[in-house]
Design goal:
By secondary structure, the chain is mainly beta. It contains 7 helices and 30 strands. The strands form 7 sheets. It has a 5-stranded antiparallel beta sheet with strand order 1-19-18-17-16, with no helix packed on it. It has a 5-stranded antiparallel beta sheet with strand order 2-27-26-25-24. It is globular.
Amino acid sequence: MGRLGRWRPVVVATVLATGVVGSSLAAALGDQGPPSVAESTPVTSCAPGSMPETTSVQGRVPSADFRSGRALKGYTCNTRMVSRHGRTGGFKVLRYTDAAGHTCAYYDSTLFLGKDVVTNLLNGTGLGVVVLDMSDPAHPRKTANLVSPAMLSPHESLLLNEPRGLLAGVMGTAATAPGILDVYDVRTDCRHPRLLSSSPAGVLGHESGWSPDGMTFWASGAAGFTMTAVDLSDPRRPRTIRTYPGVVSHGLRFSPDGRTMYVADMGTPSVHSILDNPGLRIYDVSQVQDRVGHPDIKLLSELHWDDASIPQVAQPFTSGGRDYVLEVDEFTDYFGDGLTKIFQKDAPVGAARIIDVDDPQHPFVVSDLRLQVHDQQYRTDDVLSDRGARSPVQGYAAHYCSVPTQADPQIAACSMIASGLRLFDISDVAHPKEVGYFNMPSNAGGWAMSQPAWDVGNHSVWYTDGNNGFFDVALDGDARALLDR
């Protein structure tokens, strides 16, 4: 049954965005007992030819490996590098094949506004969103840099809608920014995206979401406490539908029909914490999808878990006929208890989890995807002395996950910052296990923070590391076998 004792859901039966609260699920179902501590995912065995991690702590890159030079050789398990590009990277890697059969990669080239300007100009990466022709995966070829206002700093908002062949992003920063929304056509020629519009329709920007039909783009304002729905039925003329206030939201993802929205809720400012009580919110957004005049959204439920840090995104998928989301938290909860736990050993590391949302009014946590290095028992002074381990925006934590298909995926890939790209067998959602990893740090350490993209036909996954660029990584052994199921 997985880890059902851990969840602490609060159901809100028909709560409008204005805040009408219903009964709690905990009251309805009774006492579930004390929550248990999240445990790390079982460790995989590595096929011959791998270069496994050098300590017994899953996910760790010790300082001694940097001093000896071992870290610069990288760490691989059931993976191998096909190619790389550039020396920087941001928060998203996207893959698209256009109408003519060209396959392209898109990645934002910096983690923070202005951080990599000089580096990228000197090394040829260029600014903004990088476009790669991936016709020959072993030799990526840059064909364009997208440098319109939002693409220069999309932060975490860069997303692609495949059915319509539209690439979009909102100007953003680590907090928020004026929501200039840029929309590109990539269907015609993915190697040379064509700007269709650049407008302030997004209101505020940080993360985002696409309705599956590509008719609505959502901008999340994060520190602006807003979610804004934008009509893109005509991508040349974006129209703001409505802005919904009051939620410190990260990623916004949707059910296949676009009528249910899964919001990574960063938490609420309070006297106890900068961001208190984070979790998952599930909304009925049917009125937006149906273009009802001045549409409301209904809050169906909230879910909180005890080891949460900062929820980043909840990616929907199905398994065995049930609906789930793969939710990932970023960083550690260094905002906990009024900042008293910043950089502390007992600061929660949320990592990732699988949540059953088959009944959107009664979600519950099924299992965790996390590494030993995330667990409190391994957060020793020695481990926290590793390169970048005490950084509030780096260290041993997670940031983004993805699956190769929304229907019955067998494998998931997660960027886990200093621990690199991690691969998990999720064929049994209640009992995931790690089946591979790829980590190629530089002297500055590893900074894997991007949403990975999948090249299933070539048994590969693409991601970026903020210190080390774009990687095309081939899967071997047990990891490869999962893509063939």
